[in-house]
Amino acid sequence: MAQTVDLLITHASQLLTMEDDLGLIEDGALAIQNGKVVETGSSADLEKRYTGQETIDATGKTITPGLIDCHTHLLFAGSREDEFLSRLKGADYLSILQQGGGILNTVEQLRQATPDDLIQHGLKWLNEFLAHGVTCVEIKSGYGLDYANEKKMLEAISALSGYTDQHLVSTFLGAHAFPKEMKEQPEKQMDELVNHMLPAFRHLAEHCDLFLEKNAFSLDQAEVILERAQSFGYGLKMHTNQLSQLGGIALAKKYQLLSVDHLDTISEQEIETLAETDVVAVLLPGASFFLKESAWAPARQLIDKQIPVALATDFNPGSSPCPNLHFIMNLAVHQLGMLPHEVWQAVTITAAKALGKEDIAGSLATGKRADFVLWSMPNHLYPFYHFGKNFVEKVWINGRFAHRH
Ligand SMILES: [Zn+2]
User: What does DSSP assign to residue 380?
Assistant: First the structure.
């Protein structure tokens, strides 16, 4: 006697469960009940054992887990295409920053924005992400930089969860830059961050991130922030080795971070250090592309050392204004030398791991959230081969058809 489930999808030309590499099943089927994956397998097998309240024939199509974007600054205000034009004419990122442009321009605009402005902005871009099959999005604060405005951002992220079907993961990035009113008083800003914001925002943010870089936070300041954030129970993440080597990898090992993000300038010795840890390397080739960096993250060396590699958009108004994870997946193949199966891992199961969510998301394993995408393509190589086309047909989150809002 067949077991009845809420949804039974059969005859996918390829079903990628992402259990054990791609977990590829030809003529695959997927049974869903109560928002969770019951079982995956061959259509012949599952059709014998399950009856769906709803059934879908996926002949000629591919099913994958929902994509996970594990590094975004999605909640910004305004846009910086004028600065982009200056850069095209030869100005560099750090000189723009020193002239009060760059991130401080976005901070200025964010401080003017109302909570409702932020929610409208967030929803617009989350819908765009959903259209590309992204079912879980990490969103960082970090454009408020003072207590009230960082709180405003984190509260907006929290409110956004009520407006979208997507799973949102909130990260406190108060240590993104020093705001201009604190430029001459870095100790005072550090006190604000670790003694006021960190303890107060724990209920609003799951993770804490910081920007270790020249003109941002030093190695000593980074350690103070990580140590304090860890004591409050935040998951720890760090932007490091984007433009320079300041010792971030050793620090990541010491504090057992969830992820180190960027790594465009990571040294061979630091790769050895990273290989001794469980820390995920989150690569952000959209920023390398947009900033016309000469250095790209050494994905092949990281993968050869069995370091888990995730990919993300780094969606932000300054260095990666790209809301399309598929474009990033293509950059990974063409500029980082990653193979398609490694790229699929990097935007599903390894991205989940970078967020500490690998037990509930990132693959279509029994008992995990039924977040998945039906692609109008016969196999998983298509988005790399017919690059530039969005093959996403339908998206389910928690076993329910996901709607744009
Ligand atoms: Zn970032």
Answer: T
Q: Where are the beta strands (DSSP E) in 183-271?
A: 207-210, 235-240, 259-262
d(CA 41, CA 25): 7
Q: For domain 67-354, is the CATH number 2.30.30.140?
A: no
> Separation of 305 CA from ligand 1 center, angstroms?
24
d(CA 163, CA 358): 24
Distance between CA 361 and CA 353 in Å, rounded? Answer: 9
Rounded to the nearest whole angstrom, what is the distance from the C-alpha of residue 263 to the centroid of ligand 1?
A: 11
CA of 253 to the centre of ligand 1 (A): 20
Domain residue limits, the chain: 3-65+363-401, 67-354
Q: Is the pTM of this model over 0.90?
A: yes
CA 74 / ligand 1 centre spacing (Å): 10
Distance 314 CA to ligand 1 centre (A): 5
Domain 3-65+363-401, what fold? Urease, subunit C; domain 1 (2.30.40)
Distance 240 CA to ligand 1 centre (A): 10
The CA 264 to ligand 1 mean position distance, Å, reads 13
Please give the average pLDDT of every successive group of 10 residues along the chain, which has 405 residues: 95 97 98 98 98 98 98 95 89 75 90 98 98 98 98 98 97 96 95 98 98 95 98 98 95 98 97 98 97 93 98 96 98 98 98 98 98 98 97 98 84
